[in-house]
Write a structure and sequence with these properties.
18 helices, two-stranded antiparallel sheet, WaaL-like, mainly alpha, transmembrane, globular, about 450 residues
Length: about 450
């Protein structure tokens, strides 16, 4: 296993660390609001090694589809930021640039994963068939277990309000310390797990169900139980977030999967929703609060209105990616009725709608480019999924369901630009498109991970 693959594994498994992966930095030049996480160190390392190895040693570079749109959006975002230099202070410009650079780094995971998968010389060893999806699943399962642990033993977050966190009480926050962002990661993980369950002929499901060491150790029925237990664990974790945006994302995900693959899912969804609404009072209160516009719902509407004011005044070029925090400060959004400053918290740099956020920061051209990027990826995944001979079907199904689900969720919190969500999505996109272009004829040897020339490889790598 080379260094690139090792760093990618570390990046995936750093997701469950969440806020615990934060690296404290001393204030340099009076720069506040700078949070550096473990991934902010690992991803630049991976980018440097990937570029250096391909340009200096292999002298070839596999470029994925839609890379042009990624570069175009990055260019528009940078130009919008440069245009805002006239009203930003130097420290504010530097921090805004770091936000832009972070987005570029996370987007680079797409071509990196794409090329690593495409260069793989065997079909179902590392990384084309099982390894990366299994790492993603393990990561989200660990994240869910940590969330349940937090829900049971650290349920009162009001004591952390002084540090900028919302005072949640008995809600699953996991290591993100936020039920909305934790919820959408759990939903994306559930989509991947259910896509594997619903699609026939994929190697991950075949590996789980094979009679192997589990039978020798008296665990013959455990593999089948695993395919059932993982969705249950993730669904229960989603329920415990008590997040309405997460509930909506969950409904959309199951609805889309049900329409595409299994109508039985729709029946199960209806039964589950009815039971949750009737038997869990807090779920009922959250749903009713969305209809009657409780304090949280009203605050979200106010945030949309405030963001739209910035959009109207800067609809063409935006305020700069990501100078949104300082634009809101200019508009007085961080001051109370008496004009006194109020803490902006950890969400001050974003908006409660990713679409409005893109429009406000990059202008109309950035918005169009961003929508074309995600729309193009979704359409390409759908076109490939509609051709059964084009593999891997479960990854295309994951993309087809994940993209609209995430976009809908992102209209209530800025989840399209949450670092760990960006990481998940770009890895899945690179895995899907890279694996599809790296198919070889199935070997005659029925053992999973075997190649006619290279022999047999363990399912988790070589």
């Amino acid at each position: 296993m080379n260094l690139e693959k090792l760093i990618l594994i570390l990046i995936i498994f750093s997701v469950p660390l969440g806020q615990f992966g934060k690296i404290p930095l001393p204030l340099v030049g009076g720069l506040p609001f700078v949070n550096v996480y473990l991934n902010d160190v690992l991803i630049p390392m991976l980018i440097f090694i990937w570029f250096a190895y391909r340009l200096a040693v292999k002298k070839e570079l596999f470029l994925p589809p839609f890379l042009g749109l990624i570069l175009l959006f990055a260019s528009i975002g940078l130009l919008s930021l440069v245009n805002s230099f006239r009203w930003l202070e130097m420290s504010q410009f530097a921090i805004s640039f770091l936000y832009w650079w972070r987005w570029v780094q996370y987007a680079m995971l797409y071509p990196i994963v794409y090329s690593l998968v495409k260069e793989s010389s065997f079909e179902i060893g590392w990384p084309a068939g099982c390894f990366i999806p299994c790492c993603l699943i393990i990561g989200v399962v660990v994240f869910a277990i940590l969330g349940i642990f937090q829900f049971l033993f650290f349920s009162d977050f009001s004591k952390y309000a002084a540090y900028g966190w919302d005072p949640h009480y008995y809600r699953l926050l996991s290591t993100f310390f936020d039920p909305n962002f934790a919820g959408i990661l759990l939903v994306l993980g559930l989509i991947l797990v259910l896509s594997i369950n619903l699609e026939k002929g994929n190697h991950i499901k075949a590996w789980i169900l094979r009679d192997g060491n589990s039978a020798k150790h008296g665990l013959k029925n455990f593999p089948k139980a695993l395919l059932f237990l993982l969705p249950v664990l993730l669904t229960v974790s989603i329920l415990l977030t008590f997040s309405r945006s997460t509930y909506l994302a969950f409904l959309c995900a199951i609805f889309f999967l049900g329409l595409i693959k299994s109508r039985r899912l729709l029946i199960l969804l209806l039964i589950f929703c009815c039971l949750a609404f009737v038997l869990v009072p807090k779920v009922r209160n959250r749903v009713v609060g969305a209809v009657t516009l409780d304090a949280t719902a009203r605050a979200r509407l106010q945030d949309w209105q405030k963001t739209y004011v910035i959009v109207k005044d800067n609809w063409l070029t935006g305020v700069g990616f990501n100078a949104f925090r300082y634009a809101k400060d200019q508009y007085g959004y961080f001051r109370n009725e008496r004009g006194l400053p109020i803490p902006s918290g950890h969400s001050g740099a974003g908006a409660d709608s990713s679409v409005l956020f893109v429009w406000a920061t990059t202008g109309v051209f950035g918005l169009i480019t961003y929508l074309l990027l995600y729309g193009g990826i979704w359409l390409e995944a759908w076109l490939r999924y509609s051709k059964p001979k084009v593999k891997p079907q479960f990854l295309y199904l994951t993309l087809i369901v994940s993209i609209p689900t995430l976009v809908i969720h992102s209209q209530f919190v800025n989840s399209l630009f949450f670092p760990w969500i960006m990481e998940w999505m770009w890895i899945v996109v690179g895995l899907a498109f890279g694996t599809a272009e790296n198919r070889v004829s199935p070997p005659n040897n029925p053992q999973i991970g075997c190649h006619p020339q290279k022999g047999c490889h363990p399912i988790f790598g070589s």
